[in-house]
Automatic annotation (TrEMBL), chains A, B, C, D:
Gene source species: Albibacterium profundi
Lineage of the organism: Bacteria, Pseudomonadati, Bacteroidota, Sphingobacteriia, Sphingobacteriales
Function text: Catalyzes the phosphorylation of D-fructose 6-phosphate to fructose 1,6-bisphosphate by ATP, the first committing step of glycolysis.
Catalytic activity: beta-D-fructose 6-phosphate + ATP = beta-D-fructose 1,6-bisphosphate + ADP + H(+)
Binding-site positions, Mg(2+): D107
Alphabetical UniProt keywords: Allosteric enzyme, ATP-binding, Cytoplasm, Glycolysis, Kinase, Magnesium, Metal-binding, Nucleotide-binding, Transferase
Residue sites binding substrate per the record: T130, I131, D132, R167, M174, G175, R176, E227, K251, H257, L258, Q259, R260
Annotated positions binding ATP: G15, R76, C77, G106, D107, G108, T109
NCBIfam families: PFKA_ATP, PRK03202.1
Protein's recorded name: ATP-dependent 6-phosphofructokinase
Cofactor field: Mg(2+)
Residues involved in ADP binding: R25, A26, V27, V28, R29, R159, G190, A191, E192, K218, T219, S220
Subcellular compartments: Cytoplasm
Length: 328, 328, 328, 328
């Protein structure tokens, strides 16, 4: 039988992502609507250890749905990796009256609540929030759609100037070990080549592609480079290409952390609202150790171990294939 | 056995939608990649009748992936509804050498190619392109995501000024008979109330909601009104609310056709690329009378009759429910 | 000799405008830098009467430079127009320790502080903040540049769809009695016609212009209509044009209050920072009853009576002329 | 007495800038309005030498006002620096019937037409078009305003994530030898420090500023670095700061050429329209060897030698001062 929950603790952890605030809002308001109380835990796991708690009401989350970042902040926390740290965290949240947790973040976040719930028998739900879109159990993670929009706005601007000259542009995008942002934004931006960890393009192959594009009389060429691909990032690729292929003037853009910010897209805000709503409803239904996600056009949930233990393979086959076909 | 196709005709029809150009580009380049020829048909069915054809090569679709509207233009065409009109259209496209059609648009577009392919035995594929998201067979139609982003950018701006005053804003959005844009942008915009054809909110109920919001000390209230809802649009709703509820200063925004334009979002460009790629591959595989669409995270296809004959019910139950819960 | 000022009161009044927060930030930080204290007065003159004061430090204005609206809110205040109301306001701000005022707003705001400073001998500085750009003494008022950018983004989107069809779009923009937003955004948006209070275009003349454009084979026509022009707004103009000129399908967009919101442009943020900085420096220099403004590329200041008593003529002659020449 | 001009040649040269297309449109339409013919010269001076001419009519410049880049493209041209190259260029444009030139670009562009007009007695007008805002004779150059908006949108996004963590962000912006983009976008973005060529901040001084900001409990710090400043760009500054100051996690963004693209702002489009209109009117009035510009809120013109020979000092004193005051 499900235990009665009185107070939910909500936190964000890991790299921040657009849509986290919309998700916090959904968790808080869904909980309040169901007569639960809500504590916001600041700085993720660090806040559990150092007692950074704030009581949240409906107005605490007014006018935040459109904000990038996270009002609860995030931080790394070495202490939570130790049994002593987790014990202290548990005592603190118990003293605060928190009897269930909703954690928004990536695989590190999920690993944390998984261990925590095993050790202290507290209900936990994970919500996938990372721009990298590298989690198993959801077609899309919070922030990924916004990050792709941010990248293509940059590519569109670069293409304006690319069309005016004969230039070769290298744009480095985020994604850690995942090429998901690179592949999606590369297709959406009409890039001539996309370098990803998953496909592992060698420099010589890239040069071959660029030569083909030059023959086709393209006036400009844009190459998207995932930060995790094997050639060491945009600067290194640019340097190596330039040494073999000096027809073009090469230019580098490193988008960096601006990809983590910005007002979330409609897609991310709707997804955030649905996931936060679903997470609280799962807790109310007596569930624990679940990760909510979007599958197809429906919200569903899987075991947290299943999410943690499966490596994500997000790159759809048709997309890898068409990225080559459409670049002609 | 599949007939050999030599030349594809591609056209856009109905209301234009962001992503149509990205989709045209994908159709053209996928066809060229497979050694097919491509004719662009201007002005939709009207162009078939009045012989508005352009031969398309890879450069014809350079630098259009980011453009709103459609380079092939659209038009209404009464003549195509007559057997004589269609016969003329068929003779024209045959003379042009077109032996398969890809039509991008809404249900009117699909109805047209369905009849046409029955009468003249020409292979046809439909691609769902409309901001209204009201077609059966695809979780998302081309342009819907961009339109929602456009609406929430407007709502975000209105909320800035709303937060500075005690005001009641009515924002009318598109969607014809569908509340899909209203529901998604209303949730994403954090609207206090959403009036949709599907839910049919009476003015008295709306006033009840607004009074509850006023009690909760919200400093601003934004109401999203789908153009197809039963009270006759934002101006009429505003007038009737104002007469019963004069606490607030009421303001109306009619977004109108700006919702049909704008650079397509990353989501719409990727979707457009995948759908265009899939449509040509279906033709190459000898298929006809199919509508391609996104289901889950996969591209699939259904019979065109199935798409035409099913009324779309796109509003997910959890979304209607959460739109009330989160507005508290 | 200048009196020693210890505490500045800052407020926003009238319609809000993008850049007001950036200006509040500049006033607060410049004052603090010079060892003055600062009180934020909420709701403009109303806050003086009802004692809505908040003490402001450097962190009070952190992370607001990019926000539309005003964190100090604005309100209308009938009481301040009475001598009794102003007396109460003065007693309240005196009790708060405020010995100088910076008011950000339009002519109503300036009229208020002008009377107030005469009656109670308190130093006052006015900062022009309104999207309408209708104040004498500054080439640009805070928020005008952002509002023009908002309007042209809307026009650009409408033009996407306009280029796909043969349509006539009417876009109504703000500006009260001023055509400044209409003229600037009309030129910047490439509108085919601009209806403004200053130029007074009759419907028959407009129809003449539209016929000329139709002859020139323009595929789309966009008409910008200032809310204060003589024909009664976009809906009325559209109706009257339609009845005489049915070649086009006519569509109306009412942008409304979204023009008052949005993240301020770089221009508005820099202007806001310079004006706020200058206002405090004037008070420190013992000045009062001045309005600061941008003239050329320099910040200057004029007597507040001069600003109030002069009607603004902001529409540069070359711009009115070129708006006709470039629409061909 | 002024010679009769029949055909104007218009070209863009040097780095492209948002607003160039709006300016080309204004030149073309103003010329046509006055019954002049217009030739578009592709690739700048290179196009004169290699005969890349296109006849332009009103429709040639339809729907380009909102586009970044330049439809006439730009290129570097070593040949034009030789007397033989210029002679060939002159013979070509003479053969084309061009009897006056409007060149849009930076100081290199102006130097080219200045020499050309002396050698071949052809009327020339220069229009300042560069994002760097480093030309004498105009308060603002075409593209500068848009570039600043592009930069602050990036900074706003970075600040979202900055507010969630304790991080130190370095953002490198363009401007060649000018700190104008850095100063304006740094003020508008609320940056904690701005490194510019003009002010020459040593690393130790920067570290002092950052330590002060850290004491003031700022949760994030953003440093804007002009590409031309003395410490060698964002990567080098980040490395040197990191080695002495490891409290923060440091992150680098290199915006690169996306600053040259994007739809021009309203300000840039209006400025482009006024300058193009004025340039043609000067030619019609028999003037030559002038550079048009915005001074105050008025379009004026100066001798081209005056523009070339004066080093621009665009950084207003109050802005440098307030950038320090407001960063507290």
């Amino acid at each position: 039988m499900a235990r009665k929950i009185n107070r939910i603790g909500v936190f964000t952890s890991g790299g921040d992502a657009p849509g986290m605030n919309a998700c916090i809002r959904a968790v808080v308001r869904t909980a309040l609507y169901n007569d639960l109380k809500v504590t916001g835990i600041l700085q993720g796991y660090q806040g559990m250890i150092s007692n950074q708690f704030i009581d949240m009401n409906s107005r605490s989350v007014s006018n935040i749905i459109q904000l990038g970042g996270t009002i609860l902040k995030t931080a790394r926390c070495a202490d939570f990796r130790t049994p002593e740290g987790r014990k202290l965290a548990y005592e603190n949240i118990k003293a605060e009256g928190i009897d269930a947790l909703v954690g928004i973040g990536g695989d590190g976040t999920f690993t944390g609540i998984e261990v925590f719930s095993r050790e202290f028998d507290i209900p936990v739900i994970g919500i996938p929030g990372t721009i990298d879109n590298d989690l198993y159990g959801s077609d899309f993670t919070l922030g990924f759609d916004t990050a792709c929009n941010t990248v293509i706005e940059a590519i569109d601007k670069i293409r304006d100037t690319a069309a005016s000259h004969d230039r070769l542009f290298f744009v480095e995008v985020m994604g850690r070990d995942s090429g998901c942002i690179a592949l999606n934004s590369g297709i959406a931006g009409g890039a001539e080549a996309i370098l990803m960890p998953e496909t592992g393009t060698a420099i010589d192959d890239l040069i071959g592609q660029l030569e083909k594009a030059a023959d086709g009389k393209k006036t400009s060429t844009i190459v998207i480079i995932a930060e995790g691909e094997m050639n060491g990032g945009a600067y290194n690729v640019a340097k190596r290409v330039k040494s073999k292929f000096d027809f073009y003037d090469t230019k580098v853009t490193i988008l960096g952390h601006l990809q983590r910010g910005g007002a979330p897209s409609s897609f991310d805000r709707v997804l955030a609202s649905r996931l936060g709503f679903a997470a609280v409803n799962l807790l109310l239904a007596g569930k624990s150790r679940r990760v909510v996600g979007l599958r197809g056009n429906k919200i569903s949930d899987i075991n947290i171990e299943e999410s943690i233990n499966n490596k994500a393979f997000k790159l759809a086959d048709d997309m890898i294939e068409l990225s080559n076909v459409l670049a002609i």
